[in-house]
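User: Predict the full complex structure for these chains.
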Amino acid sequence: MTIALSPDAQGHLDRYLQQIRTALSGRPAVDAGEVERDVLGHIDAELSGEAQPVPAHRLLAVLDRLGEPREWLPREDAPAARTFAALDAGPGDWRLPLVACGSMVLAIMLIMGPVMLWPLPPVLAAIGFVIARITIGLLDDRGEAVGHRAWLVYPPLLLFYVPILGALAGGPALPLGNLLVDDAVARRQFASFVQGGAAAVPAIVVVVLGCWWMLIGLVAGQLVSGVRAMFRPFAARFERRHALRLALAGLVLALAGIVLLMITSRFVPRLSAQERAMPDAVPVDPIVAVAEAFRTHPLVAVADAHGNEQTHAFRLALIRDPRLAGVFNDVVVEFGTARYQDVMDRFISGEDVPYASLRRAWEDTTQFEFEWDLPVYEDFLRAIRAVNAARPPAQRLRVLLGDPPMDWENIRSTDDYLARMKTVDRDEHAVAVIRREVLAKNRRALVIYGGGHLFRKNAIPNAPDEWARGVVALLERPGTTSVFSIDPETRIPLTPAQANVASWPKPSLALLKGTALGQLRVTRPAQRLVRFEEQFDAVVYLGQPGEMTMSTMARAHCDDAEYMKMRLARLSLLPPPPGAPAALPELLRRSCAAAQH
Amino acid sequence: MDENWTTQLRKGLLELCLLNIIGAGRIYGYDIVRQLRAVDALVVSEGTIYPILSRLKRDGLVRTTLEESPSGPARKYYELTRRGEQLLADMNRYWDTLIGDISDLRKAKS
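Assistant: Here is the predicted structure of the two-chain assembly.
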């Protein structure tokens, strides 16, 4: 404006412009900034011949002719707004603010309570937000101040605005920063790429953040009314100059980051070979780590080295430790056939179940070998039954049998068996059980499967797809479920990758990502290179490979003629796999020879 | 007279009046307001026209140019686009037909 206004008149003008912004926000058909400039031009033209500074009463005469901004446009009630407007009895009505705030409070209570009823909390929060926006719209239309209702209307809005604003402010710098903090490999790769030292990493984040601010500043400058509408009513004073200031701040930030990058690449020594080496994995209490993993993952998968007694002891600790009581609800096992889920449910809940029925759960899986007949597996199930007997109902565990149903009564030959196995996908079946019985019911499960079923990466050379075909890969591939996978390593020596592992307490758990242990190659030379950290999230150290012991058959089983006949018949169905130390029936006989009474 | 009816009628006619004023030749925004003041029956808040002008511009019916003014800030001039001229011709034709038909109705009644 070229005219000078008295302070009083200036105050009136500022308030009038504010009314224009409020009235035109959320009206995409109108450029609110342009209308504001037109109105200022109008006032300028009207008062240019007046003595200056122009007093308030002269300005008010012009504003009076211009009229109330909220009456300039017809009300464009959305159908939803009309519906909710029926709940609004007019000035002073508190019902809509109460509904808005009530929805939000209920959402928070559900999230913090014992039963979340997903996805009700986000739906309620969204309802609270929409009603709060409608309330603001109705109050604006009436020209009524929010007043004390702000205490009810603003929180549901801020519940959404604050995270959105945070995400907008951080932009790509947030995930990049997280990646560089969490991932030592990425951190070093970035630092090497820009030929800088450790200080190069924050400099990269600063540059990205600066560029992002420039971008959103320039975009927001073009969409002033859109920004006001998006963050209504808090952005009513937002103007193009604010957006340009943000862009300018971004420019300064980006330049500062570039200068820092130049300094680090010129004066800070480049990464030495030692710096490039991965940091050591750090051992922690596995119970604490598993409890922590369940905070962020609905599923924690623990690899089973079939028959290994140390992994069995570790699993027992997981179900017995009171620190994990109530942390997870289900235990999904590979060593049980879903055909006998009802029998297992009754057994685990403490009912008397005939042993002849119970043993079918692990004896009649799709696998013809005798691994599940080893006493550690039956012992594990009995341990869960005992744990349940001592715990309140809310903390009791359910055992889910993950192996597909198998009709052994119809299998009499190798061809029968091979034909039957072509119709089942063991991993797909386990995933279906987990999705149906665990994830769909908002429960948490400990998944116990052989290590191969928990691989993420496909090690087959030239495989068209880098995903493995196991339980974890099938669950994670769609991007909706995240599994925390643990390998209690029993076969591969860990000390060549990190010598101090030998001094770790047994058991210890260590995260693998970005560590020396994580770089350990876990595939054979003929296979694709897959590192430990790509297959599992964590390793559990139970001792050196030479210290591992294997469970042997129970004497009672070996003396059971009917059992031996059944198992030897099944073991004869297929030849032993290449490299097996002996034929499978011979392995059973050896295990029985070592059997304990 | 029903105030709501006259208000709705005025608002509907305002756009027609605006397009006719601009259609008469390139014009300074503030002068549009001054010309509208002369139409007594079309008493509206003067500010009402600015959102309408903004919408007409966004719809591609008018275009604006800024020109330096010796007596103040740069002035914004409005003129019709080809689409605006076409729409104005259609609206005027419709208005003439409507006025004619309503006059005929009133004559028949009297």
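Residues 286-547 of chain A form a domain with the Rossmann fold fold (CATH 3.40.50.11550).
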